[in-house]
Specification:
The protein is α+β, with helices and mostly antiparallel strands. It contains three helices and five strands; from the N terminus they run E-E-H-H-H-E-E-E. It has one domain.
């Protein structure tokens, strides 16, 4: 699967190696995407009468439905953001405007922004904490460049 390209900014999906000699599935050795694997791990511990496959497919449909519901509401903002970054090209490692635009966009959608981690001017960490978050919640990370 190729990564979508937003005028030089790429989203990456990481896949992990699966060791068939290991009977237990772990995120570090799973052939699935992290999101899929998190759901699979959670389902394997579920006592439901549904099969793990049916549970996983149902959960993926729920996630997809949520994404489909939210995406149209932010598509105009994403398009404007993409155009502004495209119209203001910056040298690699000096993408200050792009960094500011992206972090401001995420902050406007309730993400907490940590600017200049590791003293990198063109980097930020955006964190969103669900109102239902607790110590048992799953954490999903995305690397965008």
């Amino acid at each position: 699967m190729s990564s979508p390209n937003f005028h030089g900014h790429h989203l990456y999906q990481f896949h992990h190696r699966y060791d068939e000699s290991d009977d237990e599935v772990h995120p570090h050795n799973s052939p699935f995407s992290p999101t899929f694997q998190l759901a699979l791990n959670e389902i394997q511990s579920d006592d439901s009468a549904k099969s793990p496959t049916d549970q996983l497919l149902e959960r993926e449909r729920d996630w997809f439905s949520e994404i489909q519901a939210v995406l149209p509401t932010i598509t105009p903002e994403l398009r404007d953001l993409s155009v502004r970054i495209f119209e203001n090209p910056e040298v690699g490692g000096e993408e200050r405007l792009a960094c500011q635009l992206l972090s401001d966009f995420l902050a406007s959608h309730d993400f907490t922004i940590e600017r200049e981690p590791a003293e990198m001017e063109t980097a930020f960490i955006a964190t969103y904490e669900s109102p239902h978050y607790d110590e048992h919640s799953k954490v999903i990370g995305f690397f965008a460049e």
